[in-house]
Design a protein that fits this description.
Layout: H1 10-18, E1 26-30, H2 38-48, E2 53-58, H3 64-72, E3 76-79, H4 84-106
Parallel strand pairs: 1-2, 2-3
Helix pairs in contact: 1-2
């Protein structure tokens, strides 16, 4: 397992990902970050790696609309703070959804 890195803003995340030579299986991103939103980062990542699974996380508890929008778009959302078990579950969900998308596009 190889980790790409830890970024404190969206632009830094994309800089780190520029160094990746293989596939990016999973992106774990905050919804709201300085310079670029998590959605903007995910869009940029999926332009290069369309099958990347994405888990969006946020500590904002009052943004039910955002969670609903992500859910309806087939994305995975994780509310902060979270446990290791919750993270493991959400990563599994996101990877399963990515496999399903990949299967649909290859058939």
């Amino acid at each position: 397992m190889e980790l790409g890195g830890d970024a404190d803003n969206g632009r830094r995340a994309l800089e780190i990902l520029e160094e990746v030579r293989g596939e990016v299986d999973l992106l774990l991103t905050d919804v709201i970050m300085p310079e670029m939103s998590g959605h903007e980062v995910a869009e940029a990542v999926r332009r290069r790696w369309p099958n990347t699974a994405v888990v969006y996380m946020s500590g904002y508890t009052d943004d039910a609309t955002m969670r609903d929008d992500l859910s309806h778009a087939g994305e995975t959302f994780l509310q902060k703070p979270f446990t290791t078990g919750a993270l493991t579950t959400k990563v599994g969900e996101a990877l399963r959804r990515a496999r399903e998308r990949r299967a649909k596009t290859s058939s």
